[in-house]
Amino acid sequence: MHAVEGVDPLVDGVKAVVQGTDRYTVRLKDVRGELVGECTCPHAASGIFCKHCVAVGLAVLRKPPKAKPDLRGYLESLEKVRLVELLLDQAGEDEALFRRLALRAAGGDIGEQVEGLLSSHTEDYAKKASDVLDALGVIADDERVVPVARRVVDLLAEAAEVVEDPYGLVDEQTQRAVSLYAELCAVHPPDPKELAGWLLRLDLVVDFNLLDFAEGLGDAGVAELRRVVEQEWRDGGTNRRRLLQLREGLATLAGDNDEFVDAVRDGVDGPQDYLRVARALRSAGRVAEAVEWAVKGIPVVAAYQRQEMVRFLVEVGEADRALSLQKRMLDHNPSRENYLAFKDLARRLGKWDDHRQWALSLLPGGDLLVRALLDENELERAWTAFGEFGCEETTLLRLADARVVTRPADVVPIYRALVEDTIGRGSWDKYKAAVGLLVKLRRADPDFDSYVARLRLKHKRKSTLMRELDKAKMY
Predict the structure, then answer these.
(1) CA-CA-CA-CA torsion for 71, 77, 83, 89, nearest 10 degrees?
(2) Residue 27 three-state SS
(3) Less packed terminus of the chain by CB within 10 Å, N or C?
């Protein structure tokens, strides 16, 4: 359970500290009627409403904070001079507020302000970039903001080379900056050829969607970008990744599926790209070629990618071919991963019964085989396989739970061994787990009371265990 400390009210919500793996600061706020959570943990950096935010929300529901004073009414009652003094005092304490106010006050000098802030690669770089973009967004209707927004993108691209960004916070602001600049270009179109040249030179860690710049480029800009991209491609330009992205974007803008296929295919950098080619070919109506690319990729890609390719083959009516490929993979390497992938597809196609015994016969003895037989409800074969090869503890417990119904005497020594092993790990949760095992043992062991008496005598110094036994009425 996460410990929530000090829920404090804010203007638009609450703030608290949550003790988890580390200490995290959480803010919950109301944004136009929607609950929004912010947390300093790594998971929240990707935009999810994390478990620490949930913990604070539950704490607020259990004990709502006291009603907040009417700050708006108070501020509206102040004279202008007093209000200015309050803001300046707060800006002296709050760097983020100072930056936002300074950028709004800069007027024609905002470019210099931005340059000064984002040329310094300090620890709070992502926050500074966020403040800059917030300020630019407020004055976006001013045409002078357009070149400043472009410069922000350039500065963030440079920062990506030197700023440590383990949680992708700078990348997130870079994506924001590109989107803002694209929006500004649509409202205040720059020289289309000059914009085309900038897009070609742009070297970002993050990708961008060329469609966002279509309005700003116009027909002339798109034509110029196509010309320079094709020239760079023929000349073997060094930034192949960006050229490939632009080629795909230009094909999308043109609505030319065959051109898009060529661009995607030229970008193949390994088996992981086969599925992208297959999907592009399918969109172009070239299904037979798409199938061949997917088939080519299945034996060589990672497991999760293989499953995507299998689903693709099923989608395009090649389910039998997909099953045949999965079968070949299992025959070549009878791992749990390949077994489960084959079983899942065969069951979905209604063909598992035809292949079940063949698939089980391939599995090596040990935990994998015992688990697979238990899953298939082949309890006698699972018991035999355990006797011959053994299995892991969790699987053994499953096996014992299944066998206790028909052959209780067989599982008594198993439960007893598991009880002793669990107690030997010596913690409260293990003692509780041991008592859970004893509950199961009670159903099977005719000598249960005597066994518990001996167990209590052996472990009488373990007071926590004794209390758990007492609570379960095992004397």
Answers:
(1) -40
(2) strand
(3) N
DSSP string, 133-154: HHHHHHTTTSTTHHHHHHHHHH
Contact assessment for residue 234 and residue 254, using Cβ atoms and an 8 Å cutoff: no
CB of 229 closer than 8 Å to CB of 241: no
Is 392 inside any structural domain? no
CA 151/CA 184 separation, integer angstroms: 13
Instruction: Tokens for 131, please give them.
Output: 């403040």
Count of domains in the chain? 3
Residue 340: count of CB within 10 angstroms of its CB = 15
Query: Which of 51, 68, 85 is at the close of a domain?
Result: 68
Is 352 found in the same domain as 286?
A: yes
How much is the average pLDDT of 399-426? 94
* 349, amino acid identity: L
pLDDT above 80: residue 272: no
108-137 pLDDT, tens digit each: 577 887 888 788 888 888 888 988 888 888
Write out the two tokens for 303: 């497991």
Cα–Cα distance, 16 to 37 (Å, whole number)? 11
Q: Identify whether the C-beta of residue 287 lies closer than 8 Å to the C-beta of residue 321.
A: no
Long-range contacts of residues 347-352, Cβ cutoff 8 Å, at least 24 apart: 348/314, 349/319, 349/320, 349/323, 351/323
Tell me what pLDDT residue 107 has: 61
Bridge partners of 23? 19
CA distances from 258 to 246, 279, 289 (A): 15, 12, 12
Residue whose C-alpha is closest to residue 144's, from 100, 117, 111, 177: 111
Three-state SS for 161? coil
Secondary structure (3-state) at 3? strand
The domain boundary, picked from 68, 86, 114, lies at 68
Lowest mean pLDDT among 211-225, 288-302, 368-382, 457-471: 288-302
444 within domain boundaries: yes
**Could you give the maximum distance between any two Cα atoms of the chain, in Å?**
92
Full residue range of the structural domain in which residue 9 is found: 3-68
CB atoms within 10 A of CB 433: 17
